[in-house]
Amino acid sequence: MGAYVYDGSFDGLICAVKAAAGDPAAEITRTSPPQEGLFSRAVEVEASQQESSAFLRQLDSLSDVETPEKMKLCFLWNGPEKESLLLAYARMAFSRGKELNNMLADPVVARVHKAAAAVLREAHRLKGFLRFSELQDRTLYAKMEPDHNVLPLIAGHFKRRMASSDWVIHDTARNLAALYFGGRLRVAELDKTQPPPFSDGEKEAVGLWRAFFNAVAIKERTNPRLQQGFVPLKYRSNMPEFDKD
Q: How, if at all, do strands 2-5 and 41-44 pair?
């Protein structure tokens, strides 16, 4: 039994899947197994974008374009054992070919599709729920704590929508941030720290927004359950209209 160890990157995972696909007893892990003696070997897999892209093209050819897309989305998923799930899914692409993504009754295919849908759903929601605040240096700052690693999916959307502004989207759950300055977008590590002070105009705008939100709310028609259906509780801590301060 072999353990293929990757570096946590998408290219690293795909290279590990490629290396392990032909070994029916193999497993993939982000760290070396705690009792390496239980395994015949532990192989450190080097991440290679070229090798990863070539393997995804092979899966596309064997099954369809949906397979590599589902694998990319499943990598962003925060569910358990995604490495073993993607390994099983890739193996099925070799054995089932073009019928793979129509096999929705199969537990592996069903889990991959469900995971991909969960990631896309959260990315779609955050495109509407994300709130930017102006800092004293005029940079726009938005904080989020998503279940899944949707930052790579939403950063491009805001680059197109807010191309004339400098902004930061901070995923405090993963200590990552999308940084857009001077027309250039990059993703970097950013600790979970307090943001720089808001501008005076931002403080005033937030106060007016809260006042408006409270004024238009009709107390007799308040429906918390319906409201939660449109704006889940987990997003509200980063939305000024729900801030009680």
A: parallel
